[in-house]
Amino acid sequence: MTAxxxxxxxxLEDAGAELxxxxxxxxxxxxxxxxxxxxxxxxxxxxxxxxxxxxIETRFPELMIEDGPSTSVGAAPSEGFGKIVHKVPMLSxxxxxxxxxxxxxxxxxxxxxxxxPLMGVLAVTAEPKIDGLSLALRYEKGELVSAxxxxxxxxxxxxxxxARTISDIxxxxxxxxxxxVEVRGEVYMAHPDFQALNERMLGNGGKAFANxxxxxAGSLRQLNSEITASRPLRFFAYAWGEMSALPADTxxxxxxxxxxxxxxxxxxxxxxxxxxxxxxxxxSIEEERATLGYDIDGVVYKIDRLDLQERLGxxxxxxxxxxxxxxxxxxxxxxxxDIEIQVGRTGALTPVAKLEPVTVGGVVVSNATLHNEDxxxxxxxxxxxxxxxxxxxxxxxxxxQRAGDVIPQIVDVDLEKRxxxxxxxxFPQTCPVCGSHAVRxxxxxxxxxxxxxxxxxxxxxxxxxTEKLKHFVSRNAFDIEGFGDKQVDAFYADGLVQSPADxxxxxxxxxxxxxxxxxxxxxxxxxxxxxxxxxxERRAIDLHRFIFALGIRHVGEGNAxxxxxxxxxxxxxYKSMSAAHDxxxxxxxxxxxxxxxxxxxxxxxxxxxxxxxxxxxxxxxLSQVTPRDAEAVDAGDSPVAGKTVVFTGSLERxxxxxxxxxxxxxxxxxxxxxxxxxxxxxxGPGAGSxxxxxxxxxVDVISEDDWFDLVGA
Length: 713
Ligand code: IVH
What we know:
Layout: H1 12-34, H2 43-59, E1 83-85, E2 95-96, H3 99-113, E3 124-130, E4 133-140, E5 143-149, E6 155-157, H4 160-163, E7 180-188, H5 191-203, H6 212-220, H7 225-229, E8 234-243, H8 251-261, E9 270-272, H9 275-288, E10 296-303, H10 306-312, E11 314-315, E12 318-319, E13 322-326, E14 330-343, E15 349-360, E16 363-369, H11 373-376, E17 397-402, E18 409-413, E19 438-442, E20 449-455, H12 462-473, H13 485-493, H14 500-512, H15 525-536, E21 540-542, H16 543-549, H17 557-567, H18 570-579, H19 586-593, H20 599-610, H21 612-622, E22 626-628, E23 644-648, H22 656-665, E24 669-670, E25 680-683, H23 689-696, E26 700-702, H24 704-711
Parallel strand pairs: 2-13, 21-22, 23-24, 23-25, 25-26
Antiparallel strand pairs: 1-6, 3-9, 3-10, 4-5, 4-7, 7-8, 10-13, 11-12, 14-15, 14-17, 15-16, 17-18, 19-20
Helix pairs in contact: 1-2, 12-13, 14-21, 16-17, 18-20
The structure holds 2-(butylsulfanyl)adenosine (IVH).
């Protein structure tokens, strides 16, 4: 299944298929959220889909789908916050990418308004486009009553308590203000605050934010407003929603009023009377960009007169009276000093470009990912041209691009500047860390060589061992506070922790040891005690986290959850996986029957359990840790709890995915095929072979309406 392949291992073909699949998935979940008001995945899972989509688009810009998820307006509001319906929708802006687009914009506006030079000048404002997240603040009689994120533009999240902690946001407006005022603007984090926050996060064993925008969004969307209060957020006011009266009749005039009422407004905003003047402001803002102290990604132009804005109105989701002139992708040329090979958790050898440090969009870049062997080479082993291969050599002059929060990429190489003696890069055939043989596996189905070269050393490879441990303690796995990458490296190097079970015997070993943890550099009695307490807290752990922590190839969080839900308990899971190694077994069939689990995942899981050293490590770990049984969500005393249900035929009241989510909510397992183990078949019109099989096996068959009656929904 392409869904399980890490982005840097996707072939061009798989990437295309995967982008299509993601576009469909994301659209479906948007629909579940907004259409049915019944999301079937968590916010984090939804975000992960979007993130994967973006990463693939960044790696394969040529495959970007028009109208794909990355071009659609915001994401669905999260489940954790109350919702606020925007009285006036929060729209997005159309984009201009070059000077001609800007003069087209002004020309379009003039034609629309039939605004000829005799009618005077057409004034347009220009101001920085802040790279943060937009927020709508409602004031009644001058008092702040609510704050909402944009959400999908129609409905946002209620983040009032959090907004109150931002010092740029007045709780009470100054001077004479209309009865109802809704000020809109951007929440952002300034560069020095961002750096300090990241240092703090890393120091506490946490993870750093990729960029100030993520940090601002992550900080504003905290369920605990004390956390937001501890994050240095700022706010610029630049637009408005519902207003019982307007304080001026121009854009500039209203923004001036915002300032008088107590808001921060951007000091670089200017009023221009020609396209040339707009472009001049654009270029001067672009020049100042690196020294502003906060991220901006373009300049926004708005028609100044509000009566003209009114006449211009909107086209679909953006106003006709405004446009965002984006800065070009952040690119720079530098020298490729070296190519290093990093070894990951699954043994993947990933080449990394070591660059002569260069500033790209205000950030110093000295590394860039090179994905895999094919990305660096141009010619394959049989003399064939490699699609997308760049033939990168040490000493080359390369073009670097940074796009948003993704890892910098090499997008081009300047062959004219290639040194005459530059040699083709020889990708290592052995692991640079442990010396084991490295291989590119062949996909048995397609016969194609995997893009990724892998170290075959398994756990004898220190790189794989430490990466596996880092995964084991990571946030969505065991999540042991104070036990991060740094601690893994140090404990591994000293022989204290070689395998996951060692983490849980650390305290006992420490008791017997002469070289106590509390006496090590950087540690003390309190921090040692806290670490042991944090470890002990994880001796009981949710089954899906436990499965995810094992680091089985292709088993990410989503698949771990599917498996946990399908098998319910560790013992059942472990027994079934051991039995499933035999592909003629019922256990194998059952594993493949789980909706969402494909052959690649099934193979990877059964292979994992067939390895002796994995079983040994597991036994040791299980003598320390107890996985908690997966609970059926909301199952209560539902009549279908624990039952295996098959949906077949066309369903009229719900989609197949909704049906599945609903069944699982009521504690049932959903299977894709009918067998002796099936308890119930829900058949819609057009049901065929599955219905027949159910009848043969005397499995209960009910209609879709019966199903709703049965579960009482
Ligand atoms: S005006 C009706 N002005 O850009 C349009 N938006 O792509 C109202 N943004 O959602 C928006 N700086 O989050 C406007 N100076 C600025 C902005 C700005 C950043 C963001 C805002 C909006 C997005 C649209």
